[in-house]
Every structure is written in structure tokens, then in C-alpha cells.
Amino acid sequence: MLLDPKKTTVAYRCPYCGCGVLAPVGVFSLTSDRMRLNCACKQSHMDIARVGEDKIRLSTPCLACGATHTHTVSNSVFFGKDIFALNCTVSGLD
Q1: Cα(75)–Cα(94) distance, integer angstroms
Q2: Cα(51)–Cα(83) distance, rounded to whole angstroms?
Q3: Which of 4, 43, 70, 71 is 20 to 30 Å from 89 at the Cα level?
């Protein structure tokens, strides 16, 4: 029997150059401490880390305010939703 591992795609827009950064993330790629997605311009990155058994922490640069925001979501949201957006805690924009 073959099992299809859970996977999703994450994306963010670089606040420095405006490029979109897109990468697939599988449940097995998050077994290490963290995963880092770097923009091609090398000025921004997104960190993805497992927190406990059922949570994922995302640290993303914000296009709206320029700060880095940290959000924690459940595995079911991260791997189960077709799409979800993280908002800026300063401006409220997605």
C-alpha cells in the first residue's frame, strides 16, 4: 500500500523586489527544525517551522508594513485548506 504524503504550496511576495516566492512543502520536509524560503534577491525570506505535533509557525515578511509577522496555524489548516491568507497585524491587510 502506498500513502500519498500531505503537501501544500506556500507563497509570499518580497517587500523589496516585488517578486513572488513559491515553493512546495511536504509533511516530511518539515521534520527538521525549520524550512527557509529565500527570495532570489536575497533580501527577504519566509521561515516555516513545526511547533509540537499539530501546529506550524510561519514567519513572513509583510508587503504592507515591512515588518516580519509570525503566525501559527494548525496542521489541518496548513495541509487541508485549498487557500488561506495571513494578515498584517498592523494594517489588517491580507
Answers
A1: 20
A2: 21
A3: 43
Say if residues 58 and 73 touch (Cβ distance below 8 Å): yes
Residue type, 81: K
**Residue at grid coordinates 517587500:** 15
Q: What are residue 30's DSSP bridge partners?
A: none
| Local structure of 4: helix, strand or coil | coil
- pTM to 2 decimal places: 0.81
Residues 6+ apart with CB under 8 A from 6: 26, 27, 75, 79
In this structure, what C-alpha cell is assigned to residue 66? Answer: 515591512
Inter-residue contact 78 to 55 (CB < 8 Å): no
84 against 57, higher pLDDT = 57
